[in-house]
Structures are given as structure tokens and as C-alpha cells.
Amino acid sequence: MSFVRNARYLMGRSIHNIQKRGFADEMKLTFAAANQTFYDQSEVRQIDVPSFSGSFGILAKHVPTLAVLKPGVVQVIENDGKTSKYFVSSGSITVNEDSSVQVLAEEAHKVEDIDVSEAKQLLSQYQSQLNSASSEEAKAEAAIAIECAEALVRAAE
């Protein structure tokens, strides 16, 4: 098969698959962490997530995606327009073909529940650990903790 025929065949298959996919007009969110479940198959309008490939917003009919969460704020806009913000330390995000979304966080807390002074103390503690770390492993662990604590402070402010 020639290159042009291959390209035409692949384009035709792609268009057929897109037409066949039949995305939903509503989006259902499951958002949970080890400490709490925030949404359980709840219909929402939009979800904004921080990921290592960049922050992005998710609406119904979003292309299927799998991403790793980085420390930061997940914002959920419900159908009535109410906005809720949650700090996540890490985790994963999955967007499925049927417009269902799963946000699975290692740890998550409502932003309004974060104490700014405690977050700053935590950051200071991890910075001290980095400065006194004697092994490469201890330095790496402290650097990861600092990244998370910095995001926690930004979320709380």
C-alpha cells in the first residue's frame, strides 16, 4: 500500500472512530483520596487540574486522557456554578470516553481548611531537612516534600 493510500485509510478510520465514539453531554466526577471521598459520580460542569504535563480544564466531551497530578489545586465547578477548591499532594486523573472523570489523590483537603501558618511552618521544616540532608536519597525526599509544601502555601494564601 502506498503512503498516500495508508494516510487516507488511517484518516478514514479516525473519522469513523470519532463519529462512533458518541460522547455524553454530561460529565460525572469521582474525586477521592485516602482520607475522604469528595464526589461520587456527581454531575459537574468543569474540573481544573494541575498535572506534570501542565494544568488543564476538563469539560464534557473532553478527549480521553490519563495524567499524573502534581501538588496544587483541583477546582470543581458544579452545574449550579458553585466552585470548590481542593489541595492535592499527588495522584492521577483519568478522563474516559463517556465523559466520566476520576481524580484519585494521594491526599486531598478543602483549600478553606488549610492553615496558612501551619503550611509555612511545614515548608520551613522541609527546607531545614534539605539543608541538613547527608545522603542523596534524603535530599531527594526533602526536595519532593518542599515542592508539595510550597504548593500547599500557595493554595492557602
From TrEMBL:
Localization, UniProt: Mitochondrion inner membrane
Keywords: Acetylation, ATP synthesis, CF(1), Coiled coil, Hydrogen ion transport, Ion transport, Membrane, Mitochondrion, Mitochondrion inner membrane, Transit peptide, Transport
Primary location group: mitochondrion
Record-annotated membrane-spanning stretches: none
Coiled coil: 116-143
One annotated Gene Ontology cellular component of this protein: proton-transporting ATP synthase complex
Superkingdom, natural source: Eukaryota
GO function term, MF aspect, one: proton-transporting ATP synthase activity, rotational mechanism
Domain ATP synthase F1 complex delta/epsilon subunit N-terminal, first and last residues per copy: 27-108
InterPro entries assigned to the protein according to its UniProt record, in alphabetical order: ATP_F1_dsu/esu_C_sf, ATP_synth_F1_dsu/esu, ATP_synth_F1_dsu/esu_N, ATPsynth_dsu/esu_N
Entry's family note: Belongs to the ATPase epsilon chain family.
Its job: Subunit delta, of the mitochondrial membrane ATP synthase complex (F(1)F(0) ATP synthase or Complex V) that produces ATP from ADP in the presence of a proton gradient across the membrane which is generated by electron transport complexes of the respiratory chain. ATP synthase complex consist of a soluble F(1) head domain - the catalytic core - and a membrane F(1) domain - the membrane proton channel. These two domains are linked by a central stalk rotating inside the F(1) region and a stationary peripheral stalk.
Subunit structure comment from the entry: Component of the ATP synthase complex composed at least of ATP5F1A/subunit alpha, ATP5F1B/subunit beta, ATP5MC1/subunit c (homooctomer), MT-ATP6/subunit a, MT-ATP8/subunit 8, ATP5ME/subunit e, ATP5MF/subunit f, ATP5MG/subunit g, ATP5MK/subunit k, ATP5MJ/subunit j, ATP5F1C/subunit gamma, ATP5F1D/subunit delta, ATP5F1E/subunit epsilon, ATP5PF/subunit F6, ATP5PB/subunit b, ATP5PD/subunit d, ATP5PO/subunit OSCP.
This protein's name: ATP synthase F(1) complex subunit delta, mitochondrial
Organism: Bactrocera dorsalis (Oriental fruit fly)
